[in-house]
Amino acid sequence: MTSPDLLLLSVPRQKLYLRFIRGVVLSYAEKHLIAGETVEYETRLHWIVILGHLLATAVLEFFALTFLLGALSSWKGVDVAPPRGALYFGALVCFGAGAIVFTIGLLRRNATEMVVTNKRVIVKTGLADRRTIELLLSRIESIAVEEPALGRVLGYGTVIVRGTGGTPEVFPQIARPLEFREQVQRQIAGEPKPS
Q1: Which helix (H) or strand (E) holds 5?
Q2: The pLDDT of residue 152
Q3: What architecture does CATH give domain 30-45+112-189?
């Protein structure tokens, strides 16, 4: 085979590879757009949702370092020294648990997306147990925002979306909730996306 023949064989593989990568990178909302629909605004949970996970990870990593320093230290002058193997094992367990706790926090944050399109509001929460809500803009009765004092400073709050005749859907700790509400109102009013 000549090199141009090899090039022709590799093109379909590249297209297949790019199609696979594009499918992985697309968000839930982008994968489920209807004809003529475009994403106008997207937000996720605020970083404050992983603050507890970060604190737990810091404590676990502190213990891991303590165990590691204990294993590497000289225990001269001490009658009974702890076994080094147990200290290394304790450091490994604490380090692994910290990594798991941090990963859970990141997954929780990244598994939620809120999207405003030119036709709907789409909210997806969860990774393994997925919950989706899709409201047509014409069916939204009200959208409320509740911001605690710290939320006003850091830029997070609770968004409450109520559809016509439906129960309110509450989404706590959303990043930039006022901007999300403004985007929904702009789309309902038919205003163009600000540039």
Answers
A1: helix 3-25
A2: 93
A3: Roll (2.30)
Instruction: List, for the chain, all residue ranges whose pLDDT scores fall below the cut of 50.
Output: 1-11, 15-23
* Burial tier of 116 (Cβ tally within 10 Å: 0-12, 13-18, 19+): buried
Measured CA to CA, the distance from residue 69 to residue 46 in angstroms comes to: 35
HSE-up (13 A, CA, CB side) for residue 115 = 25
160, β-bridge pairs: 144, 170
Say what the pLDDT of residue 138 is: 87
DSSP 8-state secondary structure symbol assigned to residue 14: H
pTM of the entire structure?
Answer: 0.72
Residues whose CB is less than 8 angstroms from the CB of residue 193 and which lie 6 or more positions away in sequence, other chains included: 40, 186
What is the pLDDT at residue 16? Answer: 46
The rounded distance, in Å, linking the Cα atoms of 44 and 86 is 42
For residues 123 and 158, what is the distance between their CA atoms, to the nearest angstrom?
13
| CA 108 to chain CA centroid, nearest Å | 6
Strands, sheet with 39-44, edge to edge from the N-terminal-most edge strand: 39-44, 113-117, 120-125, 131-136
Whole-angstrom Cα distance, residue 155 to residue 101?
24
Q: Which residue has the tokens 């006022």?
A: 178
The total number of residues written for the chain in this structure = 195
Specify whether the CB–CB gap between 88 and 73 falls below 8 A. Answer: no
